[in-house]
Amino acid sequence: MKHKSKVVACLNCRRAKTRCEMVSEDGCHRCRVLRISCSRSTNAVRTSQKSKSQSVEEISVELDMLLQSFLFVPPESEELYDSGSILDIEALPVRIQDWFQSYNRGNWSCDGEGEELQAETPKPDWYTPLAYIRTLFPSATRKTDFSGTSVAAPMPVEDILSREQISLLLDSFVRRHGPWLGFKASIHHPLLSLVCCAVVASCDRQACTLPSATYEKLRATTIHTINILLANPGSFPASEALQALLITALWPAGLLSTPRALIRCAIELARVQGLEEVFEAEHSMNEKACLWVSLINADIITSVESRTPPLLDANHHGLFSPPATSIMPADINVGQDERLKLLLAVSFLTARALKVMPPPNDVAGVDWWYKERREVMRDWKDLERVIDGLTALVSDPNERTPFCTLNMLARSCHLMVYHDVLYIARKIYELNPHPDPNYPYWVLHVQNKHFSAITIGWMKDSRALSEEILINSAELDTGVLLAAPEYVFLHLGYVATHVLGMQLQFMSTLNAVPAGLGLELMDKMVEKLQNDIQDHPARKCSHFISGLLTLWRQRKVLMQRS
Length: 562
Description:
Structural class: mainly alpha
Largest sheet: 2 strands, antiparallel
Strand content: under 5%
Shape: elongated
Oligomer: single chain
Distance between the termini: 53 Å
Helix content: 55-70%
Order of helices and strands: HEEHHHEHEEHHHHHHHHHHHHHHEHHH
Number of strands: 6
Radius of gyration: 27 Å
Mean pLDDT: 71
């Protein structure tokens, strides 16, 4: 009895239903041309003998699950794929870095004799995306010198500005910067008047028509005063000094560039005042408690950038830990306390999520990590539901804007958690006995099939969430958005990077452009963030997102062989 001959072909050729011709031990002809891993190569055969892989049918079923919720539009030009080259996922961050180093010449130094450029930007580290994006932002045109701090008494703001100018700047601070604060600043105190006027002058030139010489004098006086405060915190009233440090840490544009040092000094002043002792876990908080919670929030949010532990002890953060439904207010129109508690929940949940790492080479530890991540994601859903409900129910337009800003920040922190779990899931895959870093569908080969489905769901949700953030930002009043603290623009730059990264990843692995409005929303944000103020973080963010869009327009270069 004759047996039917078995056709031998690699997995890629079987999937494409094409001829599979072996030309060397490295794989078949088609896989070598496409520069993808071939299952018939000598290395792949040895690997398959040691560890059983999924069948073609299993991979096809899981791939269908991955794609069933995505709609694709044809690429603009078929010429993008004439070379048959596929861009490796892991190469994307490096190529993005290389391109930005040539785009943003502020981070480069040029040899006078030749055309060779030498990079000064550090190696990309997407484990800390906010810190790395800061290095890709255009460099500041002004450099603050902290050496030689004088101990002379600072000049009062009345000696620099007229009463009308001071009143105009302080009113602008309350109206535009106030929604981003969680406490009522004592703006008429001499120290805070100086700081608030300097912040508005550096962020809002429409409200401030100061001559250039006057602005430089105001800026220099503010820097000098803050340096005196850092050197001798007891030289000013403790409460006003604490508020001044916190405001300067949130809006360092054109003033200072070390928010962590400012927050550290503010924490010392807060402990001298005993703020942590008067902090009450109730819906109605006094002014000192509001200031203490605002300090905790600033501490956590700024520590997230570099993934460093918060300066304050963690047990202070657990008072309003999830579930967020426990902080639903009794009176919807009492807004500031609820915003503070919700922001504290956002900060706490972000810090808690980013500090949990799976034990290396421990299957049980990986199981625990995935379970913990799923619980965190459920907490985020509950928290966002509460914030959305409060935003919809607030009747006062002036109170609605702060909830909208809180909504945007909460979703951005949520996206950072998605980024973190996807980043670590990739690292878990690389710890497998025989990982293939060039395999485009690596997510299907995470150790546990159940975890693969979870990771795929995270990828889908993160893409939708990134577009939601851009929509919320585009709907926010331009004046309020431009008055946002510096960290908000780092988050917006990260959101845009995530959108572009997903576009490039789908184009790389599936040769298709995913349908969506992410790129159009990025273009809208470039227009919305544009302003004429040098060193304004919104202007830097606009420049950065514009560079991302230019990178997308030049994507044909990325798809060509090296």
